[in-house]
Amino acid sequence: MQEHDLSFVRAEMVANQPPPASNQGVGSWLRKNLFANPVDTIFTLIGIILVLLIVPPIIQWAFINAQWTGSDRSVCATVAQGGVQPDGWKGACWAFVDAKFKQFMFGRYPVDERWRVYLTGAIFISLLTPLLLPSVPRKGLNALLLFVAFPIVGFFLLSGGIFGLTPVPTPLWGGLLVTLVLAYVGIAVSFPLGILLALGRRSKMPVVKLVCVVFIETIRGVPLITILFMASVMLPLFLPPGTSFDKLLRALVGVALFASAYMAEVIRGGLQAIPKGQYEGADALGLSFWKKMNLVVLPQAIKLVIPGIVNTFIGLFKDTSLVYIIGMFDLLGAVRQNFSDANWASPQTPITGLVFAGFVFWLFCFGMSRYSIFMERRLDTGHKR
Amino acid sequence: MATQHSTAEGAAPRVPLLYDPRVRGIAYQVLVFVGLFALVYWIVGNTTANLQRANIASGFDFLKGRAGFDIGDSLIEYSSDSTYGRALFVGFLNTLRVAIVGIITATVIGFIIGIGRLSKNWLINRICLVYVEVFRNIPPLLVIFFWYFGVLSVLPLPRESIDLPLGSYINARGLFVPAFQWGPGAWLVLVAFAVALVFVFFVRRWAHKKQMATGEQFPVFWTSVGLIIGLPALAFIVTGFPLSFEFPQLSTFNLRGGMQIRPEFLSLYLALSFYTAAFIAEIVRAGVVGVNRGQSEASHALGLRSGQTMRLVIIPQALRIIIPPLTSQYLNLTKNSSLAVAIGYPDLVATGGTTLNQTGQAIEVVAIWLIVYLGLSLGTAGLMNWYNARMALVER
């Protein structure tokens, strides 16, 4: 090693220089993301035209021309249609939604008894929120309360008949209430039933396997409407003469069975993805079948298929709207029913009601899908291939 | 091996019967079987008793009875004097019609949106994202209602029909488009088309063989295009242009002539296409993203141009991921077409529902539904599985 005169070597680091001017700021972002090359520019222009064609009319319709208050159809109809608006007027009739809001939420549930729905809703939310927040402890107890205790309390609270509560028969239920009841029961029943069916389909016992395969494939092969028709027309035929069966309950049976077949296939996918070593390891530890499943296989399998499970839930939530076809009035049904209200019938009423219902459905489904993405990230232990 | 096995078994301590997994397995199965048998026996007993009480005949004889209801939209000859069987068949054809047209449209829109989701262009990407998130999260029935009650029902009366390009009109009674009228000899065009397809098949095989043997490439694509367009066009000219259009004519109260596409069909078709397209878009995106990045890098390294990379490397692999979920979306669309009953499009479920109400023969009608939809499902699934098996990765 020789001593060198190292004066040409810098003693301190050079300060970071800003990126080239062409690489920062709005201009660079625009160039990179919108006008990278001629083809890109053409697409951007097409996109801008599309947005200009679609967005302003929607804003015009939903906000600028919209009628927010009013007591009958005249505010939402043009002069020619017997209203007060100028000819050619097109706007949302939010006044209609405002006037019918309670009906969209509760159907024909008696006004004096609606506090019971609020109470049920409050209990539900106060049980669901801590279950969804990962940091809150005692998940087991929470789930037990939500899926075992709550249905009993909720059922008696909503339908009444004990403790001096006025009975409210289910034909009076309607609107979002029915949608949520159907979705809750469907989810609460289809998840465990789906697990059982999935395990049955992978069972080595031929009879059990055959029964599960036939059930799953039959249900998955036909539209929900036929299942609902079956539940509403054939279920009474199957039961001993004279048994009367609640219409809502029939729909619930149909929806729950339908969803559980789909759930079974999703969970089977998860079960198949678990390496054989996990099963064998559990066997080697001497765990019984149910312990093996509960402690080793299912926690891993279900974690893998969370997106699929939530998609099934979302599908189920959307499918609850089909009960309208067998004559029940869920949220969509209640909206649809009110189109024919002579007091409000105008060309703008149906579309406004449907946009409102669509927004409510969208909120729930979008919320579910975002939550699933959040959970998926949280539970990701980095073992995924 | 066999002796070893038997000695091991002989040496093993005797397991009490209660804990022998084999015995347990058989016991469980017997239990399930007996339980199921008892349930079916109970249901059949109740059903016969109920049917007798309600005085409903059983069996499929009702199919020969006079239907007595009208069907607005029919592909085959049908009147209210026709039989129930024919009514159900009309419904079946209508289901098939909306399903096939819907599947084609949904695939086209879905692929466009799905590829748009992959675009590096921010604006296109966002537009496609909004489309997917909106349509994925609302019920299909609501989309159908939206088109039917929100858009098509509030169109003006026939008198004030809105003019569309190509001599078409749209009004509250539906879309009126020019009707094709094929003259004599038109079948030759179809024959020419079929011949062209056969030709293309053989040209492709020959070109492939040639490339394998000599390395020389033959412009298969352009030859195919030329054949498929050229041969029918030639036949068209030779037979003397056997095609004319019948344009819808606006009269005082209605439109005459042309082909009417009813609002029920239109709303169902549009809603199913738009709804299913959102799902197909996500499938397409997942398929393309699922192809390993190294694949495109490797093919660039081999000197393939980007079009070739796409056609020879990316798409075949992406299709492998796309096809199974795409099949189930096609089936979903077919099954969702049963929502037609809510707006009165006479599909299989709607005509079956009317039949069920008139005859009371619930079991038979539901059985017909089950058979038809299961048949469609299993048929499509079989076809797609066959295609999938051809495309599937042949692993070591």
DSSP helical segment count of chain B: 12
CATH-assigned fold name of the largest domain in chain A: MetI-like fold
Residue stretches of chain B low in confidence (pLDDT < 50, at least 5 long) are 1-10
Which value, in Å, is the CA radius of gyration of chain A?
A: 29 Å
Q: Average pLDDT across residues of chain A?
A: 83
Compressed to H and E, one letter per element, the order of chain A equals: HHHHHHHHHHHHHH
What sequence of helices (H) and strands (E) makes up the elements of chain B? HHHHHEEEEHHEEEEHHHHH
What is the 3D shape of chain B? Answer: globular
The CATH architecture of the domain at 84-156 and 262-391 in chain B can be named as Orthogonal Bundle
> What name does CATH use for the topology of the domain at 84-156 and 262-391 in chain B?
MetI-like fold
Protein name (chain B): Amino acid ABC transporter permease
Domain ABC transmembrane type-1 (chain B): 92-380
Main location (chain B): membrane
Transmembrane segments (chain B): 26-44, 96-116, 128-149, 185-207, 219-245, 265-291, 366-387
Description:
The complex is a heterodimer of chains A (385) and B (396). Chain A is mainly α and 385 residues long. Chain A has two domains: 100-173, no CATH class; 179-379, MetI-like (MetI-like fold, Orthogonal Bundle). Chain A has helices spanning 25-33, 38-64, 94-106, 114-132, 139-159, 175-201, 206-221, 224-238, 247-273, 276-284, 289-304, 306-319, 331-337, 349-379. In chain A, helix 6 packs antiparallel against helix 13, helix 9 (247-273) packs antiparallel against helix 12 (306-319) and helix 12 (306-319) packs antiparallel against helix 14 (349-379). Chain A is flat and about 105 Å long. The two termini of chain A are 51 Å apart. By secondary structure, chain B is an alpha+beta fold. Among the domains of chain B are: 2-54; 84-156 and 262-391, MetI-like (MetI-like fold, Orthogonal Bundle). In chain B, 67% of the residues lie in helices and 7% in strands. A four-stranded antiparallel sheet of chain B has the order 1-2-3-8. In chain B, strand 6 (249-250) and strand 7 form a beta hairpin. The radius of gyration of chain B is 29 Å and the shape is globular.
